[in-house]
């Protein structure tokens, strides 16, 4: 769905404004306003940096390399644009391109470049951040890789986040990419999303999205507007996968805490099976198997009907095992399906200490098992352990922490109303920091609420906006009233362009505005059922 509408202002004929005033400085060169034919300054944030282009009349080639006031690439400068006696600074800039143009009757020079935000693209980072708050990482990048000030009149311009990053590991990663990741993942007071920009005075600012409000009123000052809704971003079926740590049982020690746990029971195949509270690795007990004058000791865990394990979904078998020195070290673990068919795997362990063993299971890993034909990996009924003597012997072995695991936590959330309006539009995300189905559900709900409706966009143009000494900046929140469009809402300034036409002495502002649902931090849905450390600690996905 794409919806566009345009309107023109009827009340603007009665609005009068003063002609624009401009001050341009490149290095030590200050062109008079009379030399400026066209001047365009584009202010961006977060996804782009600001830029400018200035077309000057090059009288007697004074701005040329051999002229009296040469303009060279690499010069720093600033551009001020306003009306009347109020001419605020719009951008601190750097000259990156100088192009000379000539006709039979005139010479011109076209000067272009970017704001000081171009410094964000100069350096790459090879560094690991561990247990750092978002603002700490931002300050480190700006101080040691970018070299911009982030303090104005003793006020810190990099604002605090509520997010601690457990580990961010980067190798030759551009500073700009890291800034975008932190801005897009950090939260403040329950809402995810920060903006960053280089302000007109060259200071770096980092702040929660929608926290900067423009003081400029747009009432009756909009000459042309275009309003649209865009479904490109709409996603109405969200699947979130968490860490691959989901297990059966969910308490990874539950099966070895009793001979008759909830899901099944232990029995001896050769020797005697019991619980042991003295020799254990996890919890209160382990499963002990004792053999007296036998060739091997063996025990097995049998799952109750309906509790069979689908090893295709849980592709990891994990357990701890310890054996006495009287055994020869050869151990066999066997799986039985519901029909009694078996799959076995041999391994070796040393004496008198605990060893953790983890084996891949499931149809995709069948090649590492000696399985009977037709063995059903979706119906694991029994797990058996055989520990061998060399000849007849006496001794004990212990098993602890038995579980099937390796499945990702997950949740799928969808909105049928959005699907009816815009069609099924899916999104899948893998987030290694989520350690339960509930957390995946909370994240999926947050993303669904954020993405299920179209975003709204406005493009506004006006030659009569007077912003005084407070220019409109990208990332500002600004209120827009369009009676004919039934719009009376706050929008976020995605970008703003200041265009000065030297011939007509006009100053035109073009505002590109966006509005979308906020992305709520997932812990809001939990109603504080999760701990702050779990809900607010993030692991990088940009490496």
How would you sum up this structure, described in words?
- The protein is mainly beta and 543 residues long.
- It has 4 domains: 17-117 and 459-515, Baseplate protein-like domain - beta roll fold (Phage tail proteins - horseshoe like beta roll fold, Roll), CATH 2.30.300; 122-208 and 518-539, Phage tail protein beta-alpha-beta fold; 237-243 and 410-451, no CATH class; 246-407, Sandwich (Jelly Rolls), CATH 2.60.120.
- Helix content is 9%, strand content 47%.
- The protein is built from 5 helices and 35 strands.
- It has helices spanning 134-146, 175-185, 416-422, 437-451, 532-536; strands spanning 2-8, 20-26, 36-43, 51-57, 76-83, 89-102, 107-115, 124-133, 151-152, 155-156, 164-174, 187-188, 191-192, 194-198, 204-208, 224-230, 237-241, 246-248, 264-270, 272-276, 286-303, 316-323, 330-337, 342-348, 355-360, 370-371, 380-407, 410-414, 426-430, 455-462, 477-482, 487-501, 506-515, 519-520, 537-539.
- The strands form 7 sheets. Strands 1, 2, 3, 4, 5, 6, 7, 16, 30, 31, 32 and 33 form a 12-stranded antiparallel sheet that branches. Strands 18, 19, 20, 21, 22, 23, 24, 25, 26 and 27 form a 10-stranded antiparallel sheet that branches.
- Helix 1 (134-146) packs antiparallel against helix 2 (175-185).
């Amino acid at each position: 769905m794409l919806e566009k509408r345009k309107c023109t202002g009827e009340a603007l004929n009665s609005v009068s404004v003063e002609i624009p005033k401009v001050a341009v400085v490149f290095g030590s060169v200050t062109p008079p306003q009379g030399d400026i034919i066209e001047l365009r300054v584009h202010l961006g944030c977060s996804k782009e940096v600001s830029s400018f282009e200035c077309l000057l009349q090059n009288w007697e080639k004074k701005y040329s390399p051999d002229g009296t006031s040469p303009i060279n690439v690499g010069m720093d400068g600033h551009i001020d644009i306003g009306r009347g006696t109020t001419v605020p600074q719009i951008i601190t800039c750097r000259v990156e391109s100088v192009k000379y143009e000539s006709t039979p009757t005139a010479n011109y020079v076209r000067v272009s470049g970017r704001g000081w935000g171009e410094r964000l693209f100069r350096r790459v980072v090879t560094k690991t951040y561990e247990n750092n708050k978002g603002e700490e990482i931002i300050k480190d990048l700006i101080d040691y890789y970018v070299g911009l000030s982030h303090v104005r009149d003793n006020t810190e311009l990099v604002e605090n986040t509520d997010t601690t990053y457990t580990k961010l590991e980067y190798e030759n990663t551009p500073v700009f990419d890291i800034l975008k990741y932190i801005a897009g993942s950090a939260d403040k007071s329950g809402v995810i999303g920060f903006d960053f920009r280089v302000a007109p005075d060259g200071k770096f600012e980092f702040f929660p999205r929608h926290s900067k409000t423009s003081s400029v009123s747009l009432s009756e000052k909009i000459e042309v507007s275009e309003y649209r809704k865009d479904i490109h971003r709409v996603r109405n079926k969200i699947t979130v996968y968490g860490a691959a740590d989901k297990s059966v049982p969910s308490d990874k020690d539950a099966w070895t805490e009793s001979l008759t746990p909830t899901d099944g029971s232990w029995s001896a195949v050769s020797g005697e099976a019991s619980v042991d509270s003295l020799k254990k690795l996890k919890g209160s007990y382990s499963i002990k198997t004792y053999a007296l004058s036998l060739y091997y000791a063996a025990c097995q865990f049998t799952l109750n009907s309906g509790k069979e394990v689908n090893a295709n979904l849980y592709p990891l078998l994990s357990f701890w095992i310890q054996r006495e020195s009287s055994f020869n070290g050869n151990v066999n673990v066997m799986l039985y399906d519901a029909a009694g068919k078996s799959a076995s795997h041999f391994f070796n362990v040393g004496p008198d200490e605990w060893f953790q063993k983890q084996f891949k299971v499931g149809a995709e890993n069948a090649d590492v098992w000696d399985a009977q034909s037709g063995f059903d990996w979706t119906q694991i009924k029994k797990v058996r352990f055989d520990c061998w003597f060399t000849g007849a012997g006496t001794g004990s072995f212990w098993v602890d922490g038995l579980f099937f695991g390796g499945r990702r936590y997950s949740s799928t959330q969808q909105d049928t109303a959005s699907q009816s309006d815009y069609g099924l539009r899916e999104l899948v995300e893998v987030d290694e920091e989520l350690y339960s189905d509930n957390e995946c559900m909370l994240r999926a709900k947050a993303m669904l609420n954020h993405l299920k409706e179209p975003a709204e966009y406005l493009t506004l143009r006006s030659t009569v906006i007077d912003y005084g000494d407070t220019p409109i900046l990208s990332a500002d929140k600004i209120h827009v009233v369009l009676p004919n469009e039934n719009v009376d809402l706050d929008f976020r300034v995605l970008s703003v362009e200041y265009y000065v036409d030297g011939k007509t002495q006009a100053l035109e502002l073009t505002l590109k505005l966006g509005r979308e649902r906020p992305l709520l931090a997932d812990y809001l849905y939990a109603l504080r059922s999760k701990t702050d450390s779990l809900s607010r600690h993030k692991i990088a996905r940009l490496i």
